[in-house]
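Morning F.,

Quick status update on the modeling queue. The single chain you submitted on Monday has been processed. Sequence for confirmation:
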Amino acid sequence: MEFDLENPFSSFEEHQSDTLLDLFATESDHMPSHNFVQCLKITDFYVSLRQETVSLILQIQFACNFEPFISYLAVTYLDRFISRQEIPQGKPWVLRLLAVSCISLAAKMKNTHFPLSKFQGDQELIFDAQTIHRMELLILDALNWRMRSITPFSFLCFFISLFEPKDPPLTQALKDRATDIIFRAHSEIKLLEFKPSVIAASAVLLSSYELFPLQFPSFKTSILSSDYVNKEDLSKCFDTMQEMVEMDGCESILDTLSSSRTQFSVVDYKCTKSESQQITNSSITTTTMMPEKREIKRRKMNRFCSEGEFQLSRIQNC
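Structure tokens below.
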């Protein structure tokens, strides 16, 4: 049976109320560990590791023409795995193997064929099926075989059901915009500390704020009155997500101006002081992951996990 991110439990339609309680009760089991989230705040290694591996996953998605839900699920597996396993430094092939294995597992969950040979055709590093299978087993073990991940998509329908009026075109527009925001939010490291339900509620609220500002106050009140939502976490998550969307807007405008070779001036576009500061900070802190040029022969990694070559151990406190 194909895994549906909006319906991680197969019995959802039969026992909707019970399953909703189960979703909120167990969502923390499908999050990165707390220690990992704290590590991201004090060390650059895991930030760079995650950025590079996520970039590789997105490259595979593009090359194989996968639906975005597959790459989203793969990144979910990645975050849970690297939060529980120590990744060796100085071995860039490990990141590629990890990316291939995570998206391979996600494709299997979505009953989608993964054309591995097609993807690896022009790569310097080629992994055979046995090597990928061993890495998949390591991931499965670290995740305790919990592959039906509870994600923000699992809570979308619940929060959208609180929206008034219940006009199908309006609610569908709300859902589409919230889905887009959730996809974008997966690259934002600051949001990893929030539960999937909080991310879903924030995405739906932000969508309402953008699309239906008149209904936003009452909709916000309805969500805040829910017993499932932590008001403080929701406020922090909403603010972080709103900053992310605003930054995306500023960057897209700057990209458009740059690509069209239009002279940029204060008359053409005005950013607020906070937005200007965000752009400045972003340009300072953002690093571009460029693969190093390596003059090495193509080779197969046939001895993955062999003694003295690559060993993973449980992550310890930073």
